[in-house]
What does this fold into?
Amino acid sequence: MKLFVIGHDFDYEMESLCRLFFPNEKITVLKENGEEAFTDQTLVYTVFDENAITVKIITENETLCDRVEEVSADEKEKSRQMAVALFGLFVKLTGFTPKWGILTGVRPVKLFRRLCKSSGIIYAANYFRDKLLVSQEKVSLAAETNGRESAIIETSLRKGFSLYISIPFCPTRCSYCSFVSQSIERAGKLIPQYVDLLVKEIAYTAQIAKQAGLTLQTVYMGGGTPTTLSAEQMGRVIDAVYENFDTSNMTEFTVEAGRPDTITPEKLQVIKSHGVERISINPQTFNDSVLRAIGRKHTSAQTIEAMLLARQTGFSNINMDIIAGLPTDTLEGFRHTLDCCFELDPESITVHTLSIKRASNLVYTGQAEYNSEGILVSDMVDTATKELFDHGFRPYYLYRQTRMLGNLENTGWSKEGSECLYNVFIMDETHTILACGAGGVTKMRQPDGDVIERIFNYKFPYEYINGFDQMLKRKEKVLSFYEKFD
It folds into this structure.
């Protein structure tokens, strides 16, 4: 696809809109006019000229065009007008209407909340529906999620923070995965040294947090799959938190148990005995053929066994992740996954929509996903929404990613009182997140303000190990950041 951007600077906005409909197609952005005839790829024209907006799409089979004569002088509104016009042409071209309209951002609920604060909930809902072309069902979802998110955000202390601990190892790499996770087969020999250094980084980070006057509120140990560590190694990492941080104000500690094939009675007992109350067991699907298609080596039966074992160990706050749109899955298969989740009765269920990233081994090509695939995954998410409401779950956080099938969303659903505070804090950017481990990103948030700065750890375990001392020095930026605002 060639995207022509003529007479305006909305390159990013128009390219993002094109990706709503063609997420995996190479898009070449051009600033000059081109031949107005189809060659070997779709041509998209976005033009601002003589105080009017013209958008045009030329394909092998048809030419679609729209023109907006009354254009706002405000640049933000002008961009929105152009996006609405181009969105309409893509809907005609593909026969697919994304339910989030022209919204391309990661945090739609954060935008909804900002509009609520400035102009009220009625204005926010109307703006989403009428100006951003968001469907009524997604407006309602944003409104309900905002209500529960807002209550959690209010619990954040002025200099509160959350701690993220990265365990970037997995038994095998799932075909859809784009995270910095290494298979045990390839990187298992690095784990002992990695754990040694991670414990040191946790201790050093605690010193930095104390000097900056920060208060620990939540801890999240994710990955990867943290339970790829041995029981003894997990105990060392969790102990490092309690031994070095003041945990008197900590209200939540989550460990992603993740893959059922890594869960053992010994590991669960260590997690529970070390004071962790919330874990996540992630089946993704309860269809064994789909598990094989995405490269998972466990079975549905192992997920059920892991869940029952966690209950026997005493865990009373368990999350389960599932994914809509996995390869070879069907609507009936997805319903089966939901039914299995309800039967196991977790306290929260997170429904992800498959996102095809370039770093994954799974690639979709062409337009078909936004007809058959897009409609299918939309039906899956709609089914999950209805069933979750019917079973007493309510949405408490929501975010979106690029290249998601159907341009949909990931939503965390929970029973009353079982929300994951960390998930809300990180997605809303409520307060500082201090990150430890390979691939971790520390995100510092200004108290009483909106300034955000980041510190990046080395991405891969071998980089983390080889550059550990240099990486540790970066944490000193936390102190200089808070000195600017205290």
Summary: DSSP finds 17 helices and 18 strands in the chain. The first strand starts at residue 2 and ends at 6.
